[in-house]
Every structure is written in C-alpha cells, then in structure tokens.
Amino acid sequence: MNERQLAVRLVKIAKNLVAAESAVSQEKGEEFRKAIKRALPKYKAWLDDFAPVGSVDVKHRETGHSWSTEITFNQEGDDYTKLLLGCRPDNPFFPEAQKVYKYYYEATVLASGKKYRVNRTKYEDLEDLKELANPKKLFPAKRMKRIYERAAAERGELKPRDFIALIERKFGAENYAKDFWKIPLGDDYYMAIYRATIMRTAVWGVNGVYHKFKRVERGDVYSIPETLEGIDKLGDLVKRYQREFVV
C-alpha cells in the first residue's frame, strides 16, 4: 500500500468515525428532547401552584454535539416563566465513548413587568435524564414564592392576609386578640405587634416586649408598612430583641 492509498484509507476511516459519532450524537439529542417532552406536564402542574399557566411555547436548538430547549410558560397578561435547558459534552473533542455530557438549566420569571432570576445557570453531570423531570429542582418552591410575594408588593397588592401569612410563616406569629399578634423570641419572651389603619393606609406597630405577661420594654414609636420591606423591618427587630433579652 503506497502513501496515496494509505491517505485515502485514513480519510475513509475518519469519515466513518465522524458519521458514527454524529449518529450517536443525534440519538442522545433525541433522548434529551423526549425527556423534556415527558417532563412538560410536571413543570406546568408545579408552576400552576404559583401562577396559572396558559399556553406553552417550546423551541429546540441543536449545534454539533450540543442541544438546548427554551420553554416559555405564558401566564396572565405579559407574565411568563421561562426555562432554558441544555446538554453538551464537557470534552467535545474526545471520542464519543470518552465524552462526559453535562446538562445546564436556567429559569427566569417576568411578573408585573419586572424580571426575576429563579436561579443562576447551573451545570451538572448528566447521569440520568430523569433528573430533568423534577420541577422542584428547577423551580425551588421557596424562591418562587419569594418572587411572587415581591412582585405583589411592588405593584401594591400585598393584602392583609398575605402579610399575616408571611409573619406567621417567617416568625411564628400568633394572633391573640383582634389585630394583635405576638412573635416568640425565646425563653418566654415575645414581641407584641398590632395592625392599624391611618388615613386609609395599613401600618403595623410594636406594642412592646413581654416576658410571660409582664411588659419589659415599650415598643419603638414608628410605623411598619404592610409590605415586604415591613417584613424585613420586623425581622431586624426580632433579631435585636433576641440579642437584648434572650441571647
């Protein structure tokens, strides 16, 4: 076999290898798209709990050995939740048998005209495509709730029941009289807060800090707005009084 024949044979071998790898790549891409298609109902059902989903738009893209899918869950008005899923080899120039595929995901929410990032782009080893079907992984409940709470507050729609639900969940507040709640601080201490309306605007105040039934400190004289910023102020007060009376 002369040099020319050897060169022709090597070219044929290389082409066959490329064709074989391309077939494997297409097969993996098809597996990826099918996995996402199966997961779509789970994504939609999970997101419905935060904001009802109407139509769903899906766009697939393939580039060489990499695949990505952009899913847009259309919600009320212009609101949406968008999920970008992708898969690509960590070492694209290795032979197919040595390639390690990683998947990545990134989710964003547009609510009340403002865009929120659910998570930063994350890359993980793709050992099992079933992992892509877990909506709790891609849309963490705690983060999703926080986004919609903030969106509601920023458009002035944090209702009394929303604020009360927040102080009950975050601080363990208990309603002990009409418009009065107590937040436990520890060691039988608690902070008493109340809700009032001043010039048609809801505000919250601190009645004081109590040890069992005895008031040990009067509350600060200022108003707490019925917003997420108000929740943050309450959180700062809880920490302050815990430092002073408990820790």
Features:
247 residues; alpha+beta; 2 domains; six-stranded antiparallel β-sheet; 12 strands; elongated
The geometry reads as elongated
Rg over C-alpha atoms, rounded to the nearest angstrom: 28 Å
Helix/strand order: HEEEEEEHHHEEEEEEH
| Helix content range | 25-40%
Largest sheet, strands/sense/barrel: 6 strands, antiparallel
Distance between the termini: 87 Å
Strand content: 25-35%
Enumerate how many helices there are, as a single number.
5
Describe the secondary structure blueprint for this structure.
Elements: H1 3-48, E1 56-63, E2 66-74, E3 80-89, E4 101-111, E5 114-117, E6 122-125, H2 135-138, H3 141-154, H4 160-171, E7 174-177, E8 180-186, E9 189-198, E10 201-211, E11 214-218, E12 224-225, H5 228-245
Antiparallel strand pairs: 1-2, 2-3, 3-4, 4-5, 4-6, 7-8, 8-9, 9-10, 10-11, 10-12
Helix pairs in contact: 4-5
Characterize the structure shown.
With 247 residues, this protein is of the alpha+beta class. The protein is elongated, with a radius of gyration of 28 Å. Strands 1, 2, 3, 4, 5 and 6 form a 6-stranded antiparallel β-sheet that branches. The protein has 2 domains: 3-140, no CATH class; 160-245. Helix content is 38%, strand content 34%.
In short:
By secondary structure, this protein is an alpha+beta fold.
